[in-house]
Automatic annotation (TrEMBL):
<dbReference type="GO" id="GO:0016887">
    <property type="term" value="F:ATP hydrolysis activity"/>
</dbReference>
<keyword id="KW-0813">Transport</keyword>
<dbReference type="InterPro" id="IPR017871">
    <property type="entry name" value="ABC_transporter-like_CS"/>
</dbReference>
<keyword id="KW-0067">ATP-binding</keyword>
<feature type="domain" description="ABC transporter">
    <location>
        <begin position="4"/>
        <end position="240"/>
    </location>
</feature>
<dbReference type="GO" id="GO:0006826">
    <property type="term" value="P:iron ion transport"/>
</dbReference>
<dbReference type="InterPro" id="IPR003593">
    <property type="entry name" value="AAA+_ATPase"/>
</dbReference>
<keyword id="KW-0408">Iron</keyword>
<dbReference type="InterPro" id="IPR027417">
    <property type="entry name" value="P-loop_NTPase"/>
</dbReference>
<dbReference type="Pfam" id="PF00005">
    <property type="entry name" value="ABC_tran"/>
</dbReference>
<protein>
    <submittedName>
        <fullName>ABC transporter related protein</fullName>
    </submittedName>
</protein>
<keyword id="KW-1003">Cell membrane</keyword>
<keyword id="KW-0410">Iron transport</keyword>
<keyword id="KW-0472">Membrane</keyword>
<dbReference type="InterPro" id="IPR051535">
    <property type="entry name" value="Siderophore_ABC-ATPase"/>
</dbReference>
<dbReference type="GO" id="GO:0005886">
    <property type="term" value="C:plasma membrane"/>
</dbReference>
<keyword id="KW-0547">Nucleotide-binding</keyword>
Length: 275
């Protein structure tokens, strides 16, 4: 089976089980979003998929081979990961950071090549960073820095990209900028993208496949129109809401009710009874 999948995967931190007997097949060439409440295991799952966390049970498969049977270099040539809040050495330029994406292809026989330079230039161009290539990362805005990290992942030239909350700490404009970039990468290059997202509406807008995680298990998985229901939001997030069509792209839109909304609904109900 091509792509990334798990079979009876169980993961733990310090002996405490987080992900339990999880079976998941990531759709190849599509964008998958992992959603769920804080502490549900979605970031742990992403780390397990990237072989950053060794399973206590079950396995992760990369192109039908157990990921544990592959060398670190083999994994890095097929799968790129952008962790949450990555940190680079002080003074590193954008070009230097992006060039690090070519390390899986370097060895004592094969040093930096014309092909490496070409791929780095392509990554800088795709992420619109050519004019910032010699700038220090420290001088960039949050959105520009995130694009630089994505460019480094692109320079790995992998078919699969894993991103842990790529929009965290970004303002709304930069969130959309980063998500638009990932969407374009998927559409133009058919890269398989898996990302953890907190914003349910962004997940529905940008993902082809939605995986809702609760207590380390998959509560629901499928197209956003199938998964994003009022019942799912209630069970997974403990939140009452209404699901309506997004007025722009017609994907499901989650409208939280909250206490103020409850009062409004109660007021409307009382008015109807009075009438």
């Amino acid at each position: 089976m091509k792509g990334l999948s798990t079979k009876n995967l169980s993961l733990a931190y310090d002996g405490a089980p987080i992900v339990r007997d999880l079976n998941l097949a990531i759709p190849t060439g599509q964008i998958t979003a992992l959603v769920g409440a804080n502490g549900c295991g979605k970031s742990t799952l992403l780390r397990g998929l990237a072989r950053l966390l060794k399973p206590i049970g079950g396995a992760v498969y990369l192109n039908s081979t157990s990921i544990l049977q592959l060398s670190t270099k083999e994994v890095a040539q097929q799968l790129g990961i952008l962790p949450q809040g990555p940190v680079a050495p002080e003074g590193l330029t954008v070009r230097d950071l992006v060039a690090q994406g070519r390390y899986p292809y370097q060895n004592w026989l094969q040093q930096w090549s014309v092909q490496d330079e070409k791929i780095v230039q392509q990554a800088l161009s795709i992420t619109d960073l050519l004019n910032l290539a010699e700038r220090s990362l420290d001088t960039l805005s949050g959105g520009q820095r995130q694009r630089a990290w994505i460019a480094m992942a692109l320079a790995q030239d992998t078919e699969i990209l894993l991103l842990d909350e790529p929009t965290t700490f970004l303002d709304l404009a930069h969130q959309v900028e980063v998500l638009d970039l990932l969407y374009e990468l998927n559409q133009i290059q058919e890269r398989t993208i898996v990302m953890v997202l907190h914003d349910l509406n962004q997940a529905c807008r940008y993902a082809d496949y939605l995986v809702a995680v609760k207590d380390g298990r998959i509560f629901a998985a499928g197209a956003p129109q199938q998964v994003m229901t009022e019942e799912m939001v209630r069970e997974v997030f403990g939140l009452e809401c209404r699901i309506v069509p997004d007025p722009v792209v017609k994907t499901p839109l989650c409208v939280p009710i909250g206490r103020k909304g409850e009062r409004k609904l109660q007021t409307k109900s009382s008015d109807l009874q009075f009438d």
